[in-house]
Amino acid sequence: MKIVTQEDVRGYTDSTIEGGIKGAIVAVALSVPGHFFFKKNVAAYRTLPLPLKSLVYVMVGVPCISVFAEKAGEAYNRGQYTGVGQKELDYELEREREKWEKLSSWQKTTDWAARHKYGIIGAGWAASMGLAFGIVARNPYQSTSQKVVQARMWAQGLTVALLIGSAALTGMPTGSTGDSAVHTPHADHSWRRMLEMDETLTAAERAQLKDESDPNKLKDLHESIAKRKQAAAGKA
User: Fold this and answer.
1) What DSSP assignment string belongs to 157-190?
2) Which residue pairs from 172-179 have beta carbons closer than 8 angstroms and sit at least 24 positions apart in sequence?
3) Higher-pLDDT residue of 236, 129
4) 173-177: which pairs have CB atoms within 8 A and are 24 or more residues apart?
5) What is the pTM of this model?
6) Which spans does this entry mark as compositional bias, Basic and acidic residues (predicted)?
7) Which stretch of DSSP H or E encloses residue 48?
8) Structure confidence at residue 178 (pLDDT)
9) Cβ(55)–Cβ(133) under 8 Å?
């Protein structure tokens, strides 16, 4: 665990903004060539109204910005951990990897779907919109606006089905919980592990680690050790 400072918050915010800007650049790099390609080669695209074309650009831009911003923030957080904090982060990642390896193929699928449900819904809506429009576009007796309305109705119906499926996946048990849908919370021992790896602890401080009556004491112990180190550094 790491105590978050105002500098950490500002650094995280700056990193996410920078990542979002990169995502916007990627979105423009994909949208502009795609616009000219479809405008030149796809007659149905040329007949689409401007609001629908704008929706296509939004559907490309928003995910790019969100994903790049989130990944940049995660990268910044990982970079802030050094020493004991990095060891604790590696320990948690190793636990997650071992837990993942123990899952069956079906459990891995449902776990992945539960963690990426919004991306699945968004991609499914875009795919269903394109598929529905491709189907209704074959009808020569409907105008373009009628085809767009019908395609949107189909896409909305498929989106509802995706939402129901996502809710079902979220409610399914994942991880090593077996067939039980009840997840038993486990105690957070990260403070204890981090303190145990600190080679500067005195005998009295190590004795306090064995006291499990009050988990908050571990945090207080961590803060007192940090103050002791700062005081020692000041005298040096």
Assistant:
1) HHHHHHHHHHHHHHHS--TT-TT--PPPP----H
2) 172/110, 172/114, 173/107, 174/103, 174/107, 174/110, 174/111, 174/114, 175/99, 175/103, 175/107, 175/111, 176/99, 176/102, 176/103
3) 129
4) 173/107, 174/103, 174/107, 174/110, 174/111, 174/114, 175/99, 175/103, 175/107, 175/111, 176/99, 176/102, 176/103
5) 0.50
6) 207-226
7) none
8) 45
9) no
Structure tokens at 47: 């007949």
pLDDT at position 175 is 47
Burial class (CB in 10 A: 0-12, 13-18, 19+), 5: exposed
Residues 6 or more apart whose CB falls under 8 angstroms from that of 63 comprise 119, 122
For 55, 99, 168, the CA distances from 174, given in Å and listed in that order, are 35, 10, 12
pLDDT tens readout for residues 67-78: 899 889 888 887
Q: Which of 68-77, 167-176, 189-198, 209-218 has the highest mean pLDDT?
A: 68-77
CB-CB contact of 48 with 148 (8 Å): yes
Question: SS3 letters for 41-57?
Answer: HCHHHHCCCHHHHHHHH
Phi, psi of 72 (to 5 degrees): -65, -40
Ranges 10-14, 39-43, 70-74, 208-212: which has the least confidence? 208-212
The number of residues in the chain equals 236
